[in-house]
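stage 2 :: seqdesign
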């Protein structure tokens, strides 16, 4: 395989259920606030502000995407909307690169962008499989994947080509 591309989103069933419950409570509370005859109550304003905040947070959660591409140049990844442009890790900057099974909670404290300011970072959306990259600087990076076999095939192709140079 010459090229690998994968896009992941937060689309787990339990997350949809949780978001639906939160949105339902927020919609019901806001509706009740508008249905009352006293229009200037501070509670009503707080509920409206809470409803708007819930909508914004849900909009951000559902816009999050982790896109990974592997090609002859290296590994490109973007954690949108927090990263607008792709970050690229060149094959020449890597000491090791392989797929692995890991424990998201034990190793990184959960999913998302983890390890800010540390030597060991992770970008993951779901599951427990990822592309482990050991950089020549000593830093470690893990990028989650739902297709580890395909990713490993592409990694093997380019790592072998680099060894021939």
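stage 2 :: out
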């Amino acid at each position: 395989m010459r090229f690998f591309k994968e896009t992941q989103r937060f689309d787990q069933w339990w997350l949809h259920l949780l978001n639906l419950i939160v949105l339902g409570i927020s919609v019901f509370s806001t509706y009740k606030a508008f249905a009352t005859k006293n229009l200037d109550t501070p509670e009503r304003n707080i509920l409206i502000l809470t409803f708007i905040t819930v909508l914004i947070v849900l909009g951000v959660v559902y816009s999050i995407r982790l896109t990974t591409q592997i090609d002859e140049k290296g590994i490109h990844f973007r954690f949108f909307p927090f990263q607008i442009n792709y970050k690229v890790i060149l094959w020449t900057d890597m000491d090791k690169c392989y797929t692995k099974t890991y424990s998201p909670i034990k190793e990184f404290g959960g999913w998302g962008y983890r390890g800010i300011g540390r030597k060991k970072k992770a970008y993951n959306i779901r599951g427990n499989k990822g592309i482990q990259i050991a950089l020549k600087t000593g830093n470690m990076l893990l990028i989650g994947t739902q297709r580890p076999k395909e990713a490993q095939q592409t990694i093997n192709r380019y790592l072998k080509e680099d060894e021939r140079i």
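stage 3 :: structure notes
- The CA atoms of residues 14 and 149 lie 26 Å apart.
- DSSP finds four helices and nine strands in the chain.
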